[in-house]
Amino acid sequence: MTAPFDWTPDAHELADLELLLSGAFQPLTGFLNSADAHAVEDHGMLADGTPWPAPVSLTLPGDHPAAAGDRITLRDPEGAALAVLTVTERVGTSVAGPVEALDEPEHGPFARLRRTPAEIRKELADREVLAVTMRGPLDDLEEIRATAEELDAAILLLPLAFGEGGPAVVRAALKARDRLPEGTLVAVVPLAPRQDPSIDLELREHVAEAYGATEHLAGPEPVTLPGPPHRRGLVVFFTGLSGSGKSTVARGLRDTLAERGSRTVTYLDGDVVRRLLSAGLSFSREDRDLNIRRIGFVAAEAARHGGLAICAPIAPYAATRDEVRAMVEAVGADFLLVHVATPLAECERRDRKGLYAKARAGLIPEFTGVSDPYEEPDDADLVIDTTSISVERAVQQVLDPLIQGGWVR
């Protein structure tokens, strides 16, 4: 029977889902209920006393209708159905329950190397196994060789491929395999890192054990040095009421950067995106959020390889702006939030497009600032008010921190 609801988990939850389905998170068979989650957080074990180091949870939006007894089809970012979750408990936005596989995951790097614990155990039969979990290159292959020789063990490299750095970790594992004894195996494991290093290590040990490890070695944490700011991706995200001047300032910044010629610039104006990328969307909260997510996705892709993207939507909701920041930072780029804080009265006085007049007349429902709220950011990196300054001065107020921060030379 087809599950009545659909949901695409975030990247961390998708990684956990894959490990639940593959058996790498044994004995877990689904997302934890509140009793298990609290027991794990307080005591490092499930409610029945089974040791387990980290919560494995799934969150839905508050307005998602799924409740206990419902079934949810969990999909990857491309829409492929991966599993069905049977909801046994819902507490607020958290849902719990067992998951049942529908298809093999294909959204991660090096899918052909994403082998399950059962496959590896079968191939290595009854041999001793030295499992090496990796989040970066291995410094000392001699220690691995010596330990494997002492144990008379097969070597299993488990690159923990998650996020933007995933492919590089897999490549490091393949390179190490070619320098280790013949028969060394590689199995990609999409284990998302945990903030607490000790918990992360415990979880790595659990995964290694699931793959049949007799002995586990944890590779060193990678040392990453960020490149100079002028080579890093950057998203300058303007937010403000209609008529605040954000598009005018954003266009001025685009032109100024184009004249300087030191950065590749992508400009995403809210009105232009509405006509093209988001054509057909309404102005309901759901569609406005989707519009901002689309802008954020394109901006993050532009910044992924070192580009500078300028966005100028209204973006009235704090949670959606936070999502865009997270998208950008997830690809290793920087994010600068500019609040164009021109007061509502001034924006309405300008009313270049006649929108406020229509909204006051009831012709435009859910209009930001009139019949729908604008959530002023409390995390803006820069606040400007265009009421009494020239466009040139406003642009300079944005350009100055870009220069001072080293993003623009």
UniProtKB/TrEMBL annotation:
Its EC number is 2.7.1.25. One of its GO terms (biological process) is hydrogen sulfide biosynthetic process. GO terms for cellular component: cytoplasm. The keyword Nucleotide-binding applies. ATP binds at residues 240-247. Residues 232-385 form the APS kinase domain. CDD domains: APSK. The keyword Glycoprotein does not apply. It comes from the Bacteria. Pathway: Sulfur metabolism; hydrogen sulfide biosynthesis; sulfite from sulfate: step 2/3. Gene3D superfamilies: P-loop containing nucleotide triphosphate hydrolases, Sulfate adenylyltransferase. It catalyses: adenosine 5'-phosphosulfate + ATP = 3'-phosphoadenylyl sulfate + ADP + H(+). InterPro entries: APS, APS_kinase_dom, ATP-Sase_PUA-like_dom, P-loop_NTPase, PUA-like_sf, Sulf_AdTrans/APS_kinase. Residues 11-89 form the ATP-sulfurylase PUA-like domain. Keywords: ATP-binding, Kinase, Nucleotide-binding, Nucleotidyltransferase, Phosphoprotein, Transferase. GO terms for molecular function: adenylylsulfate kinase activity; ATP binding; sulfate adenylyltransferase (ATP) activity. Catalyzes the synthesis of activated sulfate. Belongs to the APS kinase family. This is Adenylyl-sulfate kinase.
